[in-house]
Amino acid sequence: MTLFLQASMALLAIQGADISFTMDPEEVAFTLFMGEEAVYIPGGASPFEDGEPGLPGVSYSMVVPQGMKLQTVQVEILASEELSGVHNVLPVVSVPLNSSVPEVLPRSRSYNENSFPADHIHAIHTGNRTGFRIASFNFVPFIWNPATGKLSVITQARLTPVITEATDAHSLALTDTQISYAAGALENIVQNPEMLQEFAPVSRGSVDGAPWVVIADEAHETTLQPLIDHRASTHGSDFVSTQWIYDNYSGRDTQEKIRNYLIDAYQNQGLVYALIVGDFGETTRVSGLTIGGNTMNSVADLYYSDLDGDWDGDGDNKFGELSDGLDYYSDIYTGRYSTDVTARLTTMVNRTVAYETNAPAGNWQTTALLCGAGLWPPGYWGSFICDSIALRIPGSWTVHKLYEDPSGHPNNQIDILNNGVSYCSPNGHGFQSGIYWYDYAPTDMIASGNYTGLTNNDIPTVFHSIACLAGNIENIASIAERLMFWPSGGAVAVMFNSQNGWGAPPNMGASEWLELYFAISLFEHQHYEIGYAHSVSKDEFKANVSISMQNWVLQENNLLGDPALRFIVGQTGIEEEEGAAANAPAVFSPSPNPVAGSCAIGYSMPIAGNAEINVYDVSGRIAATVHSGSLDAGQGSLGFDASQLPTGCYSIVISSAAGSGSAQMLVLH
Ligand SMILES: [Ca+2]
Ligand SMILES: [Ca+2]
Ligand SMILES: [Ca+2]
User: Fold this and answer.
1) Average pLDDT for 582-590
2) Nearest ligand, measured from the Cα of 266
3) Residue 110: which CATH number?
4) How many CB atoms lie under 10 A from the CB of residue 142?
5) Is residue 464 within 8 Å of residue 425, measured between CB atoms?
């Protein structure tokens, strides 16, 4: 009865928490693409499938009481406003990052109707995140008549989430460590973090089981022993052989036996991290996820992180399908050493342990490398996502930006990596053999043709990319694997895709969103354990964005490396210190604001130095550069002409070696 009472009180708390939606019509912005209009709102993405009108929506997520789920969301439209003009809304189009944009865009029957969308609420979802119940939905605040082109925006609405008992929900008792780790992630994700404590799973305090395990063939135990010993001191560790698992756990195949062991250890022994050793084969789950005629047929290690259900809800022995009822929220943190070769495993073990115990000091710890190839020139570039990531990296860091444009690209990325880079985001066209620039030679970005030049073994890099196939471990040695096992240098962790990465030009595609959320998780939320940052980035993406090909991207982006690996910055405590913040520059909203033509942008520099002032649009792209070069200490003002910028909401960002600051600008024409 206690449980029922608690749920009832919580139900009231949630139902009292109506969401008051407001939107300034001036925040709606448009970009022409292939003769049609892409529609933007701040933080928005279109939740519709390919061929549907690409009107954007905003997502909301919340923690709900144990045993409950989000049933529906009632919408009361309080005000709307018709936008001027006739609007020709671009359909949603998902494009693999190594393919061309189709010349004729898909177009659904919705274009023949008189009102779209039929429903403003989409993507209602509830899942289990380490015992917490997380609910989310997407609200599309538009009414469009494809026949007339009239477009209205809902400017004010009341959204009422209605929760109900979930018959399939199970209650777990988890350890304090498991619960606090999950709560720490969810604080930044849900709209009601003040309810996390009340709606938490039951605590069982602590248990005897090790929070960190490595799963491997028993033949590898000796090779792994230095890492097992190291993790004994950092987290508490255990070696679990695949032979023991296969003998003691049931399942349809070796993969399911491993997962059933993980479920048992998670529910009963306080498991938090699992490092799985093995190349493509008996330890890798191949996903049968099919979306829009594409089947993944590649490795999805999320199978071992999201431990709800059996990933084959429809019972057809194909895993990870839309019909299989996945909730996509990680319950533990997993990573993989993708090898069965002792020498390669030795390299990974030694590099991981040395990274955490013996890494040299130096500027490499706060240096990032962002590479952006032409994705769909001349209109869409990998530099867009790189610029969005750069905004999330602390201003005190050194950020190398190597960007391709129609005249070519820089080609010193291997030298920069060898000089020392703790985080690298190489964004280009991917295949198993590497990630490539567009077609301006030389085309190797990080690929089989140049990775052997890496000599950064004592200062290895964490990689994350949107590229296609670069993390396909089915291949004998994809570039992700080569970066991990190349003995002279490369990576200490790699997060690449096992199948196609997906874009949605001219908007950010699903792969770019995940890439951005990883940067937010690592740099802004300072989740310095790589496996944790990787899982949390997926949780945050799932909870707060709804977009075509999202589930695909969540399955295919796998971590090669130890999930408990501590990012170098998290080891040494280099963070945004108060002293640095006091010296950080500031920028102010322009005068006048809103602005149609010329304006003045004020700034403040506590110390003299080089600074950049850029204007970013809502998707994080640089729309204009106001200043680049030295500025004296003190307050000043710069002229800026906004007449070339489309109507919309922009961020003005000042960054210098001492830090960064931002302000908002509204452009109205
Ligand atoms: Ca299935
Ligand atoms: Ca889950
Ligand atoms: Ca392989």
Assistant:
1) 75
2) 2
3) 2.60.40.3800
4) 24
5) yes
